[in-house]
Amino acid sequence: MKNWPFKVVSSVDGDPKVEVKYKYNTKEFFPEEILARLIKYLKEIAEIFLHQSVADAVITVPAYYNFSQRQSIIDAAVLADLNILRLIIPSTAAAIAYGIYIVDTAEKNVLVFDFGGGTLNVSEVEILNGVYERKHHKDITLDSGALCRLRTACERAKRRLSYFAQTNIEIDSLFEGIDFYTAITRARFEELSADIFRDIIDCIGKAVVYGTSLFGALLSDHKSEVIEDFLLLDITPISFGIEAAGGTMTPIVKRNATVPTKTSVILTTSIDNQENATIKVYQGESEMAKDNYLLDKFEFCDIPPAPQGAPRIEVIFELDVYDHLVVTAQDKLTDNW
């Protein structure tokens, strides 16, 4: 945090606050308060454009956001006088934008991807291939093996430019016995790639925003032929589970499960005549429970005296489309909740 351009301080309750200095005044804000101001500004822009008030919204959040992070987004929206109809992940929104106009009834598998580093390989090869041709008047595209080696070297160079301002690319006997050497700076790479970045970001940004808007219309009272037959079965991007013996994580609602969902697991006692059991609920993918996010814990009491392993305690997880999780426990032998 020492490299952040702002100062983070602790509130009375130990929660983080951001210190803001403006016109010789210093104030402290919770992150949710700062985000609320941004959301409210966007809300005002939408109201000006639509010539009507905006009360509801669908917001996209990163797939890796846990329950606490998602709740912070909702809290910020409430502060901005917005009612959140649903939180969805960007790839889901992009998929909606793609799928809403598909008229083919055949079942299809569609890949929705983030435009990441690996997909920049082609443009890099074209850039560096241009340098190679100017130097040696050779067409490297005639040799697939040489092209593959150049592509691999370009990928490594691109990764190095994430850490260094300049890097070199050296390949011995790249093509027809000619050694290849060139240098590229981060600034030059960004300049050469600027058009590609702009086109891709614009395309993906529009798809995510458009898909989110369509989903918002689907959840509202708005009627349209475009969305009348559309149904979204969303999934939970992160697993929910409990701490088991040895501190391991036992997933109950597993990642990518369709929501809403209801599932359960049977637990038992670890010692003879055990009267109580502490049930800790976590969210995350780590094998060890302590490495995941602790949502809550509760005590299941009044277990009748019985040998180790005899009681049957059913722990039930109910997760709705809003990511609201309800956990209950029942003794199957006594019906005690």
Automatic annotation (TrEMBL):
UniProt xrefs under Pfam families: HSP70 (PF00012)
Gene Ontology terms for molecular function: ATP binding; ATP-dependent protein folding chaperone
Keywords: ATP-binding, Nucleotide-binding
Gene3D superfamilies referenced in this protein's UniProt entry, alphabetically: 3.30.30.30, 3.30.420.40, Actin, Chain A, domain 4, Substrate Binding Domain Of DNAk, Chain A, domain 1
Record-stated family: Belongs to the heat shock protein 70 family.
UniProt protein name: Heat shock protein 70
The organism of origin for this protein: Panagrolaimus davidi
